[in-house]
């Protein structure tokens, strides 16, 4: 993550690798320019084919401004390990990251319903089939935006390796402390009868078989 | 994370809360404006008092351009749970996030050594005391930059709650799937004798007592 642009071998050109990184995470930082100044917020997202889907409230002024054709960059990063060398200089991190650059578009209400289902299913696979559909009121309250993935409009970088080389102190320990995000036991809301069965999608999510946003070790 | 700006109760004004969020993570997205376009990269960072410390290679052109007094925003986000409601509309996420806005400054070589120690110790607490100091050559190759934390220049948002309210289907399960990042067993580099003792800082990191970047459940 340090010394970015200095390690061309960490940059990848394969679209499949971009998709793998994007699909493994659930939260990214959307950056744009507002009145000449950088503007950045964390957002849930999902890749659907060649588009990244984002959403917010139609009442969110900043997002609406951003959505009006603004140039944007979505940055996604997962920290997969701490790389420990025998010097601080060679201490590093294992990570997967992607930046997608493009111009945002606003989806129509008709497009929104399917895109929002896909966004939910990226977070909780299978969930959209377990619940009722979106109401007109809900769709009217939701701003669904898309960032297209176009050739030349993205960068993906991955580091997954031990420290770069033994340092001067060859007898010293060096290596990697892996990091992994894991789901815990589902916690029912206070009003939920504890005997209520946990939905299949939530059980799968909690078992870590399909958690978006995390290293799938 | 959705409907940002629409939930003022999720915005906090207490600097202590900002520090808590910043200190719990290790990677953020640095966003700025280059030639009128948004520019964003993931970076390791550490808060040291009223400054956020970042670093890169002096050879990294983009970072150097950014560092020259450019307005910047650092965005940090941790996904702490998936909030499951009985409708997709009320599905949400528990998270901690912060955005710090300001102008970057480049540290002198003298300031850099201490700042880089602090950056390492934020990632691997106690590590700087276990290894040799920085060499002049290393300091010359490293661009250390700071983003000041100033009043009015930051936003912190936290959601840590069940779904907002029971939906129409009161018998349906609703709740939260907590997410937590955990360190694994340290993996020695291929050239390291397996009998080499693991440094104290690395053992502590692997035991999860002081892992930066993660929910400390």
TrEMBL record, chains A, B:
PANTHER family: 5-NITROIMIDAZOLE ANTIBIOTICS RESISTANCE PROTEIN, NIMA-FAMILY-RELATED PROTEIN-RELATED (PTHR34071), FLAVIN-NUCLEOTIDE-BINDING PROTEIN (PTHR34071:SF2). The keyword Cytoplasm does not apply. Gene3D superfamilies: Electron Transport, Fmn-binding Protein, Chain A. SUPFAM superfamilies: FMN-binding split barrel. Keywords: Oxidoreductase. It is an enzyme of class 1 (oxidoreductase). The keyword Oxidoreductase applies. It comes from Rhodococcus kronopolitis. InterPro entries: Pyridox_Oxase-rel, Split_barrel_FMN-bd. GO terms for molecular function: oxidoreductase activity. This is Pyridoxamine 5'-phosphate oxidase family protein. It comes from the Bacteria. Pfam families: Pyridox_ox_2. Its EC number is 1.-.-.-.
């Amino acid at each position: 993550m340090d010394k970015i642009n200095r390690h061309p071998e960490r940059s990848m050109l394969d679209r499949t690798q971009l998709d793998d990184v994007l699909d493994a995470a659930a939260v990214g930082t959307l950056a744009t320019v507002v009145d000449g100044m950088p503007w950045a917020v964390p957002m849930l997202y999902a890749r659907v084919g060649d588009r990244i889907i984002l959403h917010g409230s139609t009442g969110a002024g900043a997002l609406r401004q951003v959505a009006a054709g603004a140039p944007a960059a979505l940055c996604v990063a997962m920290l997969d390990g701490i790389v420990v060398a025998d010097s601080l200089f060679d201490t590093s991190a294992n990570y997967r990251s992607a930046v997608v650059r493009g111009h945002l578009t606003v989806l129509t209400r008709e497009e929104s319903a399917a895109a929002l289902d896909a966004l939910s299913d990226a977070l909780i696979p299978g969930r959209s089939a377990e619940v009722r559909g979106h109401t007109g009121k809900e769709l009217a309250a939701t701003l669904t935006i898309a960032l297209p993935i176009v050739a030349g409009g993205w960068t993906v970088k991955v580091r997954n390796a031990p420290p770069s080389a033994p340092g001067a102190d060859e007898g010293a320990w060096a290596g990697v402390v892996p990091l992994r995000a894991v789901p815990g036991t589902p916690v029912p809301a206070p009003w939920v009868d504890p005997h209520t069965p946990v939905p299949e999608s939530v059980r799968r999510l909690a078992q870590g078989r399909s958690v978006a946003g995390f290293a799938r070790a």
